[in-house]
Amino acid sequence: MSKSGGQLGRSAIVVGAGIGGLAAAAALAGKFGTVTMLDRDSLPEGASWRMGAGQGAHVHQLLKAGEQSLERLLPGITEDFYRAGAVDMRVGRDVKVFDFGGWMDECDVGFSVTSLSRPAYESILRRRVAALPGVTIRGETDVRRFTVEGGRCTGVELSDGMVLTADLVVDSSGMTGPLMRQLVEDGHAEYESEHIRINVAYTTARFRKPEKYRDEKIGFFFLPAPPEKHFGFILPIENDEWIISLGTRGHDAPPRDVAALKEYASKLPDPAVYDRIKDAEAVSELKTFRKGTATRRKIWEAPKWPKRLLPAGDALSSVNPTYGQGMTVTACAADALSGLLSKRAETGAGLDGLEKEYLTAAAAFAARAWGLSVNSDYVYPETEGERPSNFAMSRAVAATLRKLADEDMDFRVLRYRLVHMVDPDNVLSEGPLAIRFFTALQGSMAS
Fold this sequence. Notes:
Elements: E1 9-15, H1 19-28, E2 32-38, H2 64-73, H3 77-83, E3 87-90, E4 95-99, E5 102-103, E6 112-115, H4 118-130, E7 135-138, E8 143-149, E9 152-158, E10 163-165, E11 168-171, H5 179-185, E12 193-208, E13 219-223, E14 230-237, E15 241-249, H6 258-265, H7 272-277, E16 281-282, E17 287-297, E18 309-311, E19 317-318, H8 326-347, H9 354-377, H10 391-407, H11 409-419, H12 427-430, H13 434-446
Parallel strand pairs: 1-2, 1-11, 2-7, 4-13, 11-18
Antiparallel strand pairs: 3-6, 4-5, 8-9, 9-10, 12-15, 12-16, 12-17, 13-14, 14-15, 17-19
Helix pairs in contact: 1-4, 1-8, 2-8, 8-9, 10-11, 10-13
């Protein structure tokens, strides 16, 4: 049964204080007497890059569905982003997308998104979550393993040997951390993992906008079709700066010298990025990030998994970050968790069976991002491995939607809404445009 006051337990622990962990803590706050967040990093006071968020220095975009989820978890957070200098970008108008050989035509989709650096997003979330009742955030605290008794996760053991107990534990320590491996080695979990060699690398820098661009709030995404393997992104962020990431597929890497990076930008299919940064001053260190493998742990199918342990964010699934889905997927999963906890608190159902319900919801969000990103990655020969049996169909669906979006405003808006995960993934089969879409799909496959 649930505890008095609508609480489900005395304590919860969240391992990892990144975006996923912070969103999860927001979902847990108020449902437990205390929520303790643990992170091995020294957590900065402000919007500074930190070592534990290796991809944190690079371009990030919070998709609309992620923004909506964070707003439900932390009402007013979007306005906090704007107060911190986020750029308001109207989707379909301010974000220019060069996709598979051509520009996506402009339209007003009906909503905006914020554009900030990842450290700024994290700093604002950390401040808001730390202010929630019962929440404590502890940096410089290394977790050695999850403690499991009788098939139930009972807490964590720290590297100094101290054991912290909890009624519920969330693992947001990422895909490369040792905790999941340790869980398996200790005999507490069995699950299959899927790995795809995507071979992506990119270099990022921040630039101060020259005076003539100070009022501009336009961003550019370049995702050319093969055989072209170079890509790039530029977004306006806080402090009248741009953040630019330029990348390539395969085993090469983009340059880490400012002058060479500018020259690299000139090789994109359109001079938009180069024209903006050619005379701009770099205001950050250049950092390169390599993502060799997309991985998902199929814990929702696991024959053995501890009760009361919930994997979040990259601990569950980690895809090509250049598609901008990571923050949104983890925010949506946390939002779903909040709903599940609220329902259990209202009905007195307690925590038994929560991990199964949560994994079903989290897996659905992860699967959507996995399908969208991996099917795009498979188009490029630099992605290794045999293509799945449904690959041809998935590409036909994508090509049909792209063609319809070029010709028809309704499909153009729908395409952006799908990218931002605002509409459900079954909208093409069950939504109001389904008949028109399938007629066009059948026609393309017959020709």
